[in-house]
Records
---
Amino acid sequence: MRLLAVAAPLLLIAAAASGPGDTSLLPPSGYLGTWSLDGKPRVFPGSELYGHIDGGAEIFFEFGFEETTVQRYRSPAGELVVECYRMSDPLAALGIYLGKCGTESPDTGLAEKHTAGRYQLMFVRDRYFVVVNNPAGTPALVPTLTELARFIAGRLPPSQPVTVFDALPKAGLVEGSQRLIRGPVALEAIATLGRGDILRLGGRITAVAGDYSDGRGKHTVIVATYPDARAAAAAFRNLTARLDPEIKTLAGGDGRLVFRDYDGTFGTALLAGDRLEIRLRLQTQPALK
Amino acid sequence: MGRSHVSMDVIFDMNRRELVQTLAGCTAAASLMLAAPGCRKAKEAVPEVETNIADFLKVPKTPHSLPGPFPGKVVKVTDPRSLVDEKIDGKVVAEMVERGIRTLTGTTMEKSFRMFFTPDDVVGLKVNPVGPPLISTKPEVAEAVIRWLTDNKLPAKNIVIWDRFDLDLKDAGFTPDRFPGVRIEALQTMVEEGQSFRDAAGNHISAGNFDPNVYYFAKGVVGKGVRGYRDDEFYLNQHVFAGEYSYYGRLLTRDITKLVNLAAYKNTGNGISMATKNLGYAAICNTGRLHAPLFFRVCTEVLAAPPVRDKLVLNLTDGLRGQYEGGPDKNEKFVYANHSLYFATDPFALDMLCHRELVAKRKEMGIAVNEHPRFTEYLVYAESLGLGVTDPARITLVKA
């Protein structure tokens, strides 16, 4: 009997593992006694993500997307929907998560970096961004969101420490404002600096951004660290040459650019070795030299 | 594993900035645009996309043409009782709808009905069923509008709740059980992976739902090899046609005689996905090709075509809940109780007002907002075409 009790769940998991997509990560029918799979998983590899989130797919592609698996569950208590987004690498998953999590509202029952609400729980672990949905917002199902997330997280490799934000200045950084950027879609959420991949990140170089608050008001800092000084210089040249027409250059040359943005605030771009640092929304005009 | 590289090409070859700058390059409309007050001239040479907007503009307007009898006027009705403990109160919503319509028109519900409709009309209610229940059009709003119509002798069978795709209507609560006697229709079906979307003749099963004689044309922009789509078959499944033409749904061109636009209240990136986008990307097929080169411009030009321009009599944006970030997909983290409904005959004034309101909300929530002018230039363009009033100084907001 004991062997059967152990073997039955394993068999169920093995059955799930044989399906398409990342179904091996998902609970099988019978989960928590009452939950059963509601239909087959829907798998959206590569560009087919447009078929799942037409209006929001570009940011996934920019960070590096592989495949999404969507599975509905049903029980007498209601319905839940799991979306597992497998990204190309852990920073890609973190980049998506940071763009969607807002101010985190954690649940003590989950150790992963996550935010939980009544309708949705989203978390990031390794190279997976996972959303567990409670479509009807049924309050009684909120604990099950956490349980489901724990089940899935337990089947993923652990996340590694993130050091990429060390590039940002510490003083004045608004906690929770950190973002990752790998191309124009993520950049545009922060600022319009110019057409196309103006910072030449190419989906491979990960820039970091954060908001700052100090005695002179609020501003935003973006730091991109390139493979070498040559690549950074090329990005700086591209920025200065293709700067958005709404931006007026006030001073330039020698790896430094001072400009006034469309809204009357000021900005700077500073090239230093392999690093390009951009400051935006400065309330006072920086020195021109 | 290699798919992500394909996907990245989608982004890095795409210049969405061109979309607004090409406004000035729009051959047919350029003179109109540049002559318009407040219309800014593009500052860099960009490829032109020629559309058939000039053909639309040649068609004489009717008494019901946009911007309708109240250009630049937006009514906002707010009632905290409308959404309590995540539950919509249909009775309060009905009161809000009546208050909004009466304030907009300045007369009774009966006279308001006669201002826009006759009992012989076939009235289409364009809902936004995406992202239920958080950020989709609430069925309670549609119910209140339907009650107004039927109370004034419009038969229920002359009312059509519709969207472009059939996938989401049921999930959003637009079912025959809830709306007995009312038609619930979509312009097209998107077939699940592994099933054929072609009929015996090899055409898309939804091809007959679109009018080959009424179209939005974008020269050189075709639905073949569109970046982001695995192949042309995948594109066709989702978009029905793939050439330079995006046909309007027959429902709009041949069936519906009046249109009521019931939009959701949410952002899409730094812009909004509300009244004009609810129709701009839903009234036609073959839209995947348009996103990269034209994007928001579509929200103006598709509404300029007579089947929309001359039938769209009322816009009601459902802001009972709002989403200020993370859109157009639903994201609970950014959804808030806004307790408001917005009414206008002028969808462009409505969107300009809501855009500015949502920007203010984003700032209030601590977001460093990118307010670049490109995100509202399609609205400025609409004013230059005579479709609405979008200069904030000339928009009248009435709170009721």
---
Amino acid sequence: MNRGPQLSKLTARNPGFGNWGLSGRGLVGLVPVLVPIVFLGVLVVWPLGTVLTRSLAGVGPERLFEILGRRSTRSILWFTLWQAAASATLTLLVGLPIAHVLARYSFRGRAAIRAIAVVPFVLPTVVVAAAIEVAFRAASIDLDRSVAAILAAHVFFNVAIVIRVVGGRWAGLDRRPEEAARVLGATPWAAFRAATLPRLAPVIGSAGVLVFLFSFTSFGVILILGGPRKATIETEIYRNAIFRQEFDVAAVLALIQIVVVVLLSLVSTRLQRRFAKQERGRSRPFQHSIQSGRERVHVGAVGLLTTIVIGGPLTALFVASLRTGVGSGLGVANYRNLFEPVSLLPVSAAETIVTSLQFGAIAAVLAMGVGVTTAFAVTRFGRAGRAIEVAALVPLGVSAVTLGFGYLLAFTVLDLRRSPWLIPVAHAVVGLPFVMASVVPALRAVDQRYRESAALLGAKPGTVLRLIDLPLIRRAALTGGGFAFAISLGEFGATSFLARGDTAFTAPLAIFRLLSQPGDLLRGRALALSVILGILVAMVAALAEWRRDGATVTL
Amino acid sequence: MIDTDSSSGLDVGNATVTFASTTAVADVSFSVPSGSTLSVLGPSGSGKSTLLRAIAGLETLASGIVSIGGQDQGPVPINERQLGMMFQDHALFPHLDVSSNVGFGLKMRGITGAKAAERISEVLDLVGLDGFGQRDVQTLSGGEAQRVALARSLAPSPRVLLLDEPLGSLDRVLREDLVTELRSLFARLNVTVVHVTHDQQEAFALADDVLIMRDGVVVQHGPPTDLWYRPTNAFVAEFLGHPNIWRDSNGIVVAPVPSLTLVDTASSSEVLDVARGVVNDVAFREGRWRLLVAEDTGSRRQITVDSDVAHAVGDAVSVGIDIKKLHPLSGS
């Protein structure tokens, strides 16, 4: 019997049950819809709308085409595209062997490699940039802020995406077609190419697109590692808006960015849908233990690669944070200096950590509250719900820089832009997709029969919500909130556009400013601050990951 | 002892439920007297589960009426109908332990503390799960989970107990044990029960009355013996598992197995020849012989007979039936 339509019917029509979000209690019943509409309307739609209006109407067609036709614009776009393409290709080259080994072999240290490989993804961009910079120096490669450092940082940062997205599918892939090919006489490689690769292709493509997207919208890494000469769309939106007051140019660049991001998101969605259609349900995944010497070498080499690629920069960063200059001994001087005032910063470096933690807490609570409410709206209200879901996921694709620029343009009324509150609120917007990614599947997984049973046992709609739904999504909400907290701690793109008085100066801003000036003592402070921030973020993310139980955060 | 409301007879009048353009339940009417059990039997897609959900208030009636103890339930919200419902997949609240699951309905009625605890252990005892209170529901076996679900729906003394394929997810042996237990439990509690199933044996074992549905419509309604010996059409006969159904000059004819015998002699006036010829295929099932008989006329007929003689391919047989036991059916 087909229950699907019945259940949706139930939600749509029955006044006594199902759509109890709107159980005829006027405004109170509308809360789950109103909260996301107001929140996303003010903090996503309005600022992005302002950017679009500015670039399309405000600038005027003549100026728009003049800016688009500029040589500098074209070279910015070209560099942005090719570095993103190179980053995606390299990340796949590094990530696929790791994904394969983690998906197909069981061996001692597998969990460790998996954990190590995922660490960089949660690290703040400024910390990643600092680690790569230090690693290049330690290896005595003076690349003079070349592209290599940027690409290395993007690989370091995004390899976790390939491992998670591709590795996850790979591990769950039915092995029987490959076995059938082997039995029919194919060599291992031929069997892989004929039976496994075609089934993995969409998800590899999807991961590639995702890495391309993140590299395309990369900001902090390029600002720090690229120096003044390496310009991408993101850094030029920032420079034009903040330093040159060229809002028109910034708006046109933001328009290009939005168009590219939307196109790529469509490609990614299509790829994912193709995969979903292709392989569903019953599968017999397997992991086998290492048997031959060749396999041992293979797995060992991949483990070593992972450790060097990921562990190298992190170790280099930590060691460098213990030195006050080239060739100096190891010590905690840099860490002690964090408490000293420094002219570059409005407060001591240590105080920026406190500010970041406060903002993180506010952002996490806000993202959780709005995220859970929005998740209810998304799962309850069919098409309207889907529109809200799309709006809530926008910040994941459209970069934080564009969002920050939107705030700069839109929030001129009441001097909102200068309010220190805007920073944690903006962080909550950036963290919202992560809460949604965790809570929406959890809420969808709540069996409708639980609610029906509770109602039949005498529970009023509000009671069902309190005693059934909320307890069942609690873990997912905390996981999402944890990620939102971690993201807030490292958020740099949007923050760099917003107010920065002495009460609103975050740790990532401090790291960026300390790194961008010459001087061993400033640099030492930046590295020490990076280590502390990195450890804090990793701890929060690990805690969130550990708390999750069944609830999956997918990107 | 658990007391159930005495005024708990259920009346369903001309109930119709529609989904978009399809009618899932069409103009269904029946009554279940207080304290008796009705099994709604039908193949999947027949609308039986929808009917049950409509009684619970989980589906809205397009027209018709559901009343309990003479009182129209239309305007009564689900949570005030005081019904018990048990789902096939039992739908135990996964975040609560056994006693919190069982006590949920009590809590909703404001019964807490020692009074609730007493009641919880009473019903757990009743379903044979004494001492299971602190267990995590995720650790229960299928049969235990189903018993907890039963205890949960019984705890607040429902006016009507609704069972949606309650034993569907259990294996056969467990199922037969539970059916026996449920029957004696329902008799003891004197509770009004509506039970939905696609399993004829389960329905017959549990119910005072059986209602057979097909495509949203009631095909036949009556006590099990009536249904078995007087099926109204070939669908009912086939669905109930009659093996001997055929067409003769009177239309469709059903012969209950025990009345069908092998005859050696030529037909007497009371015995109607059913098949005479050579056995082409034999299968021995549940103590009966299913024979494929190639008749002298050239046609082949499948029949099931009671016989303690072993049959083999090539045997010549003659099968007849007492004319008084034949049931001519109307309809196609």
